[in-house]
Amino acid sequence: MPRRAALLPRLRSAWRLRFVLVTLGALLCGVLAWQLVMAELRQGLEQALLVSHRALQTEIDRFRYLPRVAGEDARIRAALDAPGNAAAIDAANRYLQKIATQTGSGRLYLLNDAGVTIASSNWNEPDSYVGHDYSFRPYFTDARATGNGAVYAIGVTTGEPGYFISARVDDPGLGVHGVMVVKIDLRPLEQAWAETGQRIAVTDRDDVVFLSSVAEWRYRPLMPLPEDALARLEASRLYARAALEAADPLLPKGSELGIGGAGRATTLRGTPFETGWRLLAATPVWPARAAALATTALVLLAGLLGLGLADMRRHRQRLIALRLRQTEVMERKVRQRTAELAREIEARRQVEDDLRATQATLVQSEKMAALGRMSAAIVHEVSQPLAAMEATLTAAEFGLSHAPEKTAARLQSARGLIRRMQRMTKHLKNFSRREAAPLSPVAVTDVARSALALAQPRADAVGVQLHFDAPGTVPMVRAGHARLEQVLVNLLHNAIEAVEPGHGEVTLSIERSAGEVTLLVSDNGPGIAPDVLPRITEPFFSTKLGGEKLGLGLAISFEVVQQFGGRLDIRSTRGEGAEIAVILPLLIDDDGGNEETQEAAE
User: Fold this and answer.
1) I need a surface site. Which of 135, 215, 249, 526 has the fewest CB within 10 A?
2) Start and end of every Histidine kinase domain (predicted)?
3) Do 444 and 410 lie in a common domain?
């Protein structure tokens, strides 16, 4: 016990020593962080000053010689020589207006030797300078005395600030003849500085801020102004309406700006500029303070954590081992799930392949079924021409000996009947073909006529009238001729079956709109029930009883139209018939126009 009691003070003393060393190291790191961040802030200020100095110098240099060059113009001198000549003054006004517009300067105006404006670029505006006396302005007095003048001031006429550059206009015989002045708007520089987050200010020879990206710095002195400076500024009215005598100084504490409240001190750096100006750049010092505090806290925390690292090492190793086991388990589960997904994807791909093959088979089966349903009508259509052709040939044989002049007409009639059967067999051949060729340009009107010819026998058998409404031109689409014909035949047969025999009417019309062709099959039947309409394109869905239909016609038609890049639109009002529209993209030729052909008269 005595030995243990003697050991405890040593342990406490060692802990205190370690704590003091860690604290000192943390404070030292905080000081180093302060110095580093402050150095970066100063470097940033120097760069900001350099860029802002060049921007300001460039903007001023653009118009530095504009007053002197403009003052050499003959129209300006004519206005100074004859200020009472309205034509000379008008010419000078228009000349100054043109120069101001072309150069992009603000205002350009001419003062006589007494400081009164006789011509101005804004002569036709409500705030025109013409007639105003600016003899009290320093830019006028300096130009009269030295030949040039420059000052930043708030306009007494417009109330808008600007940089005034002046040049004396001399007369070799009379001496001072007048003063040409250009007013430049430097506020876009303020806006650019503000948008980039810079805290930039420009002061005059009296250390009054007249240009700044921070609005609350503007028209405030850096230090309290002496009485003579206030009197001079009041006489020249440089900062009219600014109330400089009541403005608080910006630097009551040396180089730290006296705004923003406690904890928001700002460091300031400056560089001289022309005509007694000084360009200032400021930045808050809170990043340096925050870096110092954060570094001190982090180092102190790291030191305290380091003191307990030995006790935490064993726990950390156990935690790492546990995480490694969890990672292995998760990786094994991921591999298993990946393999399962791969098998599911392969199975789904096989099912999709089988579905496509089955669908192609169903399309061909539906064609064959349709041909079977049309067989009776085909026999009727073929038997009639054959009987007529037999009678015609018999009459022609008899006419060879009794009436030779009528034989040619009878042979021509027989030839027409043969052509009719050829067209019918050709349509049936195209309809039954299992088309696998790529899509090609197809004349919509030709396909529609072929479909009507195939559907006509069934319509005649039940006493239904077929109508065809075609446009004057033949629209072209990219499709398969036989497949599109199959779709139309299927839609026509459905419409024929839906109407009342003996009184039904089915119309196939072709319409064109912007970039699309619509083949519309409409009837005057009872329409489609609302509960049936959403399911009408489902495979194996049919409203026919007794197995009359497989329920694949509209489903196959829907799929075929989608393969052509089109869509099938079904509309129906109960008791007013149904409309089924096949909408396909209009084919565009290489020259950007619609690929069309004129419909041939039959």
Assistant:
1) 215
2) 377-588
3) no
Q: Where do the H-state alpha helices sit in 176-285?
A: 187-195, 227-236
190 within domain boundaries: no
- The residue length of the chain stands at 602
- Tokens found for residue 488: 């139309």
Of 139, 101, 134, 142, the closest CA to residue 118 belongs to 134
The DSSP element (H or E) to which 568 belongs, if any, is strand 567-572
Looking at beta carbons, which pairs linking 115-118 to residues 24 or more positions away fall under 8 Å? Answer: 115/140, 115/179, 118/79, 118/80, 118/83, 118/89, 118/92, 118/178
Q: Are residues 420 and 440 in the same domain?
A: no
Question: Which domain, by its residues, includes 46?
Answer: 18-61+287-307
Q: If residue 139 lies in a helix (H) or strand (E), which one and from where to where?
A: helix 138-146
Q: Is residue 385 part of a domain?
A: yes
State the total domains in the chain.
Answer: 4
pLDDT at 46 over 50: yes
Strand-strand pairing, 465-469 and 505-513: parallel
Q: Which residues contact 205 (CB under 8 A, 6 or more apart)?
A: 275, 276, 277
The distance of Cα 111 from the centroid of its chain, to the nearest Å, equals 51
In a domain, 475, yes or no: yes
Same domain? 501 vs 470: yes
DSSP class of residue 130 equals: T
Residue 286: partners with Cβ closer than 8 Å, 6 or more residues away = 263, 264, 265
> Locate tokens 């007409």: which residue?
409
Which helix (H) or strand (E) segment is 176 a member of? Answer: strand 175-184
The structure tokens listed for 33 are 């962080």
At 288-300, the pLDDT tens digits run: 788 888 888 888 8
Tokens matching residue 450: 């072929």
Torsion of CA 476, 477, 478, 480, to 10 degrees: -90
Question: What CA–CA distance (Å, rounded) separates 451 from 482?
Answer: 10
User: Which tokens belong to 454?
Assistant: 């195939």
Which residues, 6+ apart, have CB-to-CB distance to 113 below 8 Å?
Answer: 144, 176, 177, 178, 179
Give the lowest-confidence range in 337-351, 466-480, 499-513, 586-600.
586-600
Label residue 158 exposed, middle or buried (CB < 10 Å: 0-12, 13-18, 19+): middle
| Structural domain ending residue among the three candidates 162, 184, 206 | 184
pLDDT, tens only, 253-275: 554 444 433 334 556 666 677 67
pTM above 0.90, yes or no: no
Last residue of a domain, one of 150, 184, 218: 184
Dihedral sign from CA coordinates of 69, 73, 76, 81: positive
Cα–Cα distance for residue pair 424/222, rounded to 1 Å: 103
Which CATH number belongs to the domain containing residue 524 in this structure?
Answer: 3.30.565.10
User: Using the 8-state DSSP alphabet, how is residue 533 labeled?
Assistant: G
Q: How far apart are CA 137 and CA 116, in angstroms?
A: 11
Asked if 509 contacts 451 with a C-beta cutoff of 8 angstroms, the reply is no
Residue 91 has pLDDT above 90, yes or no: yes
